[in-house]
Amino acid sequence: MILISYGTRPEWIKIKPLIDRFEKERIPFKILFTGQHMHIANFDYDYALQVDKCDNRLNEIISSVLRSPSNIFDGVDYVLVQGDTASTYAVGLSAFNHGVKVIHLEAGLRTYDLENPYPEEAYRQMISRIANIHLCATTNNRDFLEAEKAPGEKHVVGNTVLDNLRDVSSTYGDKVLVTMHRRENLEIMDKWFTELNRIAENNRDLKFVIPMHPNPNVQKHKSLLTAFEIIEPLPYDEMIDAIASCKFIISDSGGIQEEASFLNKRVIVCRKFTERTESIGGHSILCTSPNDLKERFEQVNTNFQIDLPSPYGDGFASHKICNILKDR
Q1: 175-301 fold
Q2: Which of 33, 68, 169, 188 is the most exposed place for a label (fewest CB within 10 A)?
Q3: CA-CA distance, 325 to 160, in Å (whole number)?
Q4: Topology agreement, domain 2-159+313-325 and domain 175-301
Q5: Inter-CA distances, 221 with 162, 176, 249, 271, 289, Å
């Protein structure tokens, strides 16, 4: 029996193709919902945790998971965790403390800078020390784990998020899709927004659209985006449609780099570092400062069409994972 854990929308998006495949392959599993994004808990799960309140959100999540009843591990051979959130680390640690083997989906991502991204880089490194099976998206991810002498099996399977996109077709419209939300950008979000708006004002032939993240530290700067179409966060299917039909993307998201590469859309990545280096120079271009955004925009705006295979997989990661796990 495999216990599959998730708590956020991005985690659900990446485990859903795997759950569908487990059902087809008749691999027994249960689902644990750890409760960070309550608005996505609209389907069946076997266990749900309540995140208690304290003075630190990350501590809230970890302490709530570690206090969860031990019967969630009854009859469980493996716990599968996805990504690099606080709950991913906490569920992995709790499984380890109960003598249950850990499967890490999306293993081996690295920047080796604990502040970029914070706190995800620390969590993903700690999970790698206790995982028994590492499911890596790329050979680079596997090589990092090998170099670190991380224990356990290491398999390159691609990223499961691409399994959602096999039937999606791309076109190139006149919209520039923008998403900004990362913790490490919050202190300078006003600078990013000011430069983004200046670019939008100077490129009236394009439509700049931003699904505004609900974080108050992002929302408080939205008045700076006077030349933008500001919309509510999009459901996943609508977000994929927006990616598939835009001209290109400006974002600090990690997952969008993967999805955009599969749909052959270029991304200006607004971060100091990215753990998804495989697409840099092809599908994506790094912009480490708002001061560099205009130059990066001009580079991509005049060279936005590409036709390259995604470095993050072929859209069949769930099939490969099932072949690895089904005899266990």
Answers
A1: Rossmann fold (3.40.50)
A2: 169
A3: 15
A4: yes
A5: 32, 19, 20, 18, 17
Domain locations along the chain: 2-159+313-325, 175-301
Fold of 2-159+313-325: Rossmann fold (3.40.50)
Residues 69-84: tens digit of each pLDDT: 888 999 999 999 999 9
Are 230 and 219 in contact, with CB atoms under 8 Å apart? no
Q: Rounded distance, CA 110 to CA 283, Å? A: 19
What's the token pair of residue 211? 């699904």
Q: In what order do the strands lie in the sheet with 248-251?
A: 229-231, 207-211, 175-179, 248-251, 267-270, 284-287
End-to-end CA distance of the chain: 9
Give the global pTM. Answer: 0.92
Question: Which band of pLDDT confidence, cut at 50, 70 and 90, is reported for residue 37?
Answer: low
